[in-house]
Description:
The protein has 2 domains: 5-165, D-amino Acid Aminotransferase, Chain A, domain 1 (2-Layer Sandwich), CATH 3.30.470; 175-340, D-amino Acid Aminotransferase, subunit A, domain 2 (D-amino Acid Aminotransferase, Chain A, domain 2, Alpha-Beta Barrel). It is 24% helix and 30% strand. The chain contains 7 helices and 18 strands. The strands form 2 sheets. Strands 1, 2, 3, 4, 5, 6, 7, 8 and 18 form a 9-stranded mixed beta sheet that branches. The chain is globular, with a radius of gyration of 21 Å. Pyridoxal-5'-phosphate binds next to helix 5 and strand 15.
Amino acid sequence: MTDIQTTLTKTPKALPPSDKLGFGNYFTDHMFVAKFAEGKGWYDAQILPYSPIPMDPGASVFHYGQALFEGMKAFRQADGKVVFFRPEFNHNRMVEGAARMCLEAPPLDLFMEGMQQLVKVDERWIPSEPNTALYIRPTLIGTEGFLGVRPSKETMFFIILSPVGSYYGEGSKPVKIWTEETYLRAAPGGLGAVKAGANYASSLKAALEAKKKGYAQVLWLDVEHQGIEEVGTMNVFFVFKNEIVTPALNGSILNGGTRDAVVQLLKDKKLPIVERRITITEVIEGLQKGELLEAFGTGTAAVISPIGELHYRGKDWLINNGQTGDLSKTIYAEVTAIQSGKLPDTHNWITPLA
Ligand SMILES: Cc1ncc(COP(=O)(O)O)c(C=O)c1O
């Protein structure tokens, strides 16, 4: 089914100034909503004015945390054309995540049609200045009202849109990172590999404490406080003299779409990119020996976020003298050029707005 009923708002909002967007501060005029019930399938797909969603207070999302989301972007290219970056990747990740969360995943056509039609309706909200985009947040929640722990027999799929600028106030300036040894984001067998709301609930306290100490994000370690997992809401890359390392997808880190694209671009350049377990001890030794040249995070929101300073056990280590490294700059320029249409899309990452 992709029969989508549309009700347009009678009170369109004023557009926010594009130099004041920040990240996630504004929502567009409309949202997409579709429902699923066991025995009934998907039904009632609608685009309607952005508004609160009425919900049974017993809904499983409130009590048992059945919530999963995605994050991706649409861009307005120089010629005015609107494109999506890797929406199939996000759909696929949502399907895998839904299986882990015992939620029903929307089929590809519902996901794509909902997104396409919603973005079309709210097209005027897509900013065009450099480093801006329309952030797309597809979300799945368990909506059945009951008490007693079991999966919800009903799922709601909705999509909301937010015009965004740079994720960190500072743009893509190098960030200071806190290596976290008290709190854990995820553990083997847990939810770390899927974009479950619960992972973010688990991360809030560490991020808050790090911010109070002046750090932008947290570097997450594994249960042994050795293996590096990811950084805040990004995957992480370390550029050593002889190899570039990003933690392997070990089941407790998110399979980032940007990570995947960056690995591919590095391979295209025949650079020595390795996906493997990497420890904090190795990173600190690399810094001591001058062999760790750069580090950066990758994610939809910030694209590439250089790491200028890493705190570990009472010491702040400067990386590349706190400056953005050459590889970070090159990769940032390349990913954003593919998104903006300035470089050809040789990997089929771009989907046009229909
Ligand atoms: C925990 C976490 N890791 C990594 C990423 C990067 O994933 P992607 O590149 O698909 O945005 C995100 C999302 O943005 C995230 O929330």
